[in-house]
Amino acid sequence: PITNSDINEAQDNSFSMRRTEVLCSKCGGHLGHVFDGGPKPSGLRYCMNSISLDFKPENKED
């Protein structure tokens, strides 16, 4: 799981757009962007680069 200490956010005004860039806090790599207008409760919509995601199977105890 991602924690607030794993990412940094920075204002990105490139291409005449105002958005928030999401960066890796360790290496500074670009992970994607976050926008307002998402679902409740946060109201945020994340647009992340797929290469930055690593899905792991959930451990289910039967």
TrEMBL record:
GO terms for molecular function: peptide-methionine (R)-S-oxide reductase activity. It is an enzyme of class 1 (oxidoreductase). One of its GO terms (biological process) is protein repair. It catalyses: L-methionyl-[protein] + [thioredoxin]-disulfide + H2O = L-methionyl-(R)-S-oxide-[protein] + [thioredoxin]-dithiol. The keyword Oxidoreductase applies. GO terms for cellular component: cytoplasm. PROSITE patterns: MSRB. Its EC number is 1.8.4.12. Keywords: Oxidoreductase. Residues 1-58 form the MsrB domain. Gene3D superfamilies: Peptide methionine sulfoxide reductase. The keyword Oxidoreductase applies. SUPFAM superfamilies: Mss4-like. This is peptide-methionine (R)-S-oxide reductase. It comes from marine sediment metagenome. The lineage of its organism: unclassified sequences, metagenomes, ecological metagenomes.
